[in-house]
């Protein structure tokens, strides 16, 4: 019985560490997806491109303050009636403390969300 425990304990610890790594990845990815979706939708409601950029930056700052190292947000597309806007955000998923199972220190996750500007909406 002791031999089985000695052999299985490291495998169980490695499996638990893999579950933790997966949880970190899914949590960060979900936060970024929600933020890009909310930011691009808010940007399409603005009448001026400068206001849209400000709203996107404000939403990203408020939503991603607990996520860690993020770059962006980037707003791209045609800011005209019927145009399509895209918000892109990249964040680092930290795997600190999980190097025992061979994971890198971090992984970059990049998410983009797009939304159309209403065809009959007046823009700048």
Would you spell out the secondary-structure blueprint of this structure?
Layout (H helix, E strand, L loop, with lengths): L1 H43 L4 H15 L6 E8 L6 E11 L11 E11 L8
Helix pairs in contact: 1-2
Q: What's the β-strand tally?
A: 3
- Strand line-up in the sheet with most strands: 1-2-3
Rg result: 20 Å
What is the percentage of strand-forming residues?
15-25%
Helical coverage, percent range: 40-55%
Transmembrane segments: 6-27
Keywords: Membrane, Transmembrane, Transmembrane helix
Protein name: Pilus assembly protein
Pfam family, one: TadE
Please characterize this protein's 3D structure.
Residues 2-41 form the TadE-like domain. This is Pilus assembly protein. Pfam families: TadE. The chain crosses the membrane at residues 6-27. This protein is an alpha+beta fold and 124 residues long. It has one domain. 47% of the residues lie in helices and 24% in strands. The chain has a three-stranded antiparallel beta sheet with strand order 1-2-3. β1 and β2 (84-94) form a beta hairpin. α1 (2-44) runs antiparallel to α2. The radius of gyration is 20 Å and the shape is rod-shaped. It starts with a helix and ends in an 8-residue tail after the last strand.
Concise summary:
The chain is of the alpha+beta class. It has helices at residues 2-44, 49-63, and strands at residues 70-77, 84-94, 106-116. The mean pLDDT is 89.
Keywords:
single chain, 124 residues, alpha+beta, 3-stranded antiparallel β-sheet, 2 helices, 47% helix
